[in-house]
Amino acid sequence: MTAVPAPLDTALMLATHGVPPLPLRAGKAPFGNCAACTGNACGGRPNMKAAGSCSCPNPCHGWAAATTDPHVLTSPAWAGAWRRAAAVAYHPGGAGVTVVDLDDPAAVQWARETLPATRTVATTRGEHWIYRGTMPSSNAVRPGVDIKSLMAYARWLGSGTGSTAALPDAVRALAVKEPSPVRRAPQTLTVPLRTHGGECRHRTPAYLDRGISMAVQRITEARSAIHATVYRTFLAVLSTHGRCGCLTDAHVTRLFTAAQAKGETARHCTDAWTNALTTLGLSHA
Q: What one-character-per-residue DSSP string does the chain give?
């Protein structure tokens, strides 16, 4: 009977606890793209039910390759990676958690003085502080501090000590950068009013706020095809409110914030918004 490689054994243990693992090669980097996916020609979005998704079974897309499916983890396509793996990583966002990666003693001291206590895991140079809840990942949010959650991976270094606390606003605030690229999108809404009698019914606060709230809810409740859902939602909002100029910077920021909380990057949000404008003929209206 062939012995199970130690990294695969760890990965299968994580999968049983709902933590999606992936193999890391020496240097703590994921395995490179397979020949069919070189340069992310496939779109780099495996196991996602969206247009342009990659169905490649190999562990070659970083965080997106992480899975809790034991049949995938033990498949022949992954066998070589587990034999050569130097370590195991996991997708924090897929496990419903956020990792505050503290890379040196100064960062650890800052966290102890600033953040709520939570489960901690010792690393080579510092600590991982793990909170319950997800958010967009962001590197270098302050000296020696990275945030790893959605669309990111973290090295598995054990279960750590302490109880996992809820993700605090203090951590969410670290990823907010000013000026935000989100705030540039409303400037493209240079379209004339197309209403009867010069009055826009969308300016009624209750009507507009209800529409934006429904759009935010649609994005927040999406469980798959996030990128496609965000685009369709942006398209729906613009088709209703994009021709009268009633959308404000605050409205669009709410939409972008909801999308980023589901793992979309600011660039993806801007691209989806721009594509929706173009589809509706509003880009240069």
A: -PPPPHHHHHHHHHHHTT--EEEEETTTEEPPPPGGGGGGTT-S-BT--STT-B---SS-SGGGG----HHHHTSHHHHHHHHH-SEEEE-TGGGTEEEEEE-SHHHHHHHHHHSPP-EEEE-SSSEEEEEES--B-EEEEETTEEEEBBB--EE-----BSPPEEPPHHHHHHT--SS-GGGGGGGG-------GGG--GGGSHHHHHHHHHHHHHHHHT--S-HHHHHHHHHHHHHHHHTTTT---HHHHHHHHHHHHHTT--HHHHHHHHHHHHHHTT-TT-
Task: Provide the mean pLDDT of the chain.
Answer: 81
pTM over 0.85: no
**Tens digits of residue pLDDT in 220-242:** 888 777 888 888 888 888 877 77
**83 and 126 housed in the same domain:** no
Residues 148 and 221 in one domain: no
Tokens of 180: 């935000």
Would 85 be classed as within a structural domain?
Answer: yes
Same domain, 163 and 210: no
* Structural domain that includes position 220: 181-279
Q: What are the angstrom distances between the C-alpha of 55 and each of 15, 24, 50, 59, 269?
A: 20, 20, 11, 11, 24
